[in-house]
Amino acid sequence: MHPASTNPPALPAGFSLRALTPDDAAAVVELVRADEIAVLGEAFLDVADLLGTWARPSFRLDTDTVGVIDRQGRLVAFAELSTPERAEAVVAPAVRGLGIGSVLAGWLERRAVEHGSVIVGQTLASQHHGAVQLLRSRGYAPRWTSWVLRLPPTAQIVQPALPAGWVIRAFLPGRDEQAAYRTVEDAFGEWPHRPPVTYDDWAAMILGRPRFQPWQLLLATDPEGAVRGVAALALSDDGQGWIEQLAVARDHRGRGLGRALLAAGFAATRDHGARDAMLSTDSRTGALDLYLHVGMVVQAEFVQWAKRMTATAGS
Known about the structure:
This protein has 315 residues and is an alpha+beta fold.
């Protein structure tokens, strides 16, 4: 049973709560994109991003999401607990100031406790002052900083030389799945405060992304053919080319593989019609200087706000 149905938070008159369904995807994306445009001046989320997240086996729409519906049956706010520690909530500008954000924050905190989490966090743009103020008032504090970066469309893409015997090639379905996943998971597992991701969840977000094609997963292989680096790419409906994941095995860093994968990813997305080359990173990775060095420019800054949970959280 949906938690909201057993312990419904108090909403203003005329609004109701229900779990989201796959049919709500377009409305959720519209809410997020409107919020991004209002705060940042441009939108980043694509429907395929959301569908990939929702397709993970570990995620349940019926228990880990909630939508706020107005009298006209429109979705005007939503919240999701994407992982036991990672929350997101958006309230449409027209209904802010009514206490809906507090209701959703309380729901997310209670749901995190039900998952057994001791921490819950939400990433907000630095300029999102109202949402930041709400989280501060509920005891949240900054945890790390993240950035969205863009390679200017006029920037020249220079492909660095690889060590002898190394190549960058496209993913081969039926052969490379586990090696690519393991390379990414081992590298990302080094980050502090980053929970493990199962193969099935990773595959849903990367290989199962709508319209995925093998060129969107680039692999750096050593002279024996072993996968040592990965760049996962995505194309948005807005003509943005994203490097969704970039990972190099620890024992093979310092050889220029990360920069070579970046350049190959930028070139591949341009070749397939992307106007911009984009990626996001955060202060846990230590990779910001690399991206700035290759000519990328910070487009937006975000802060992860987190709160340590107790059994009475969400009040």
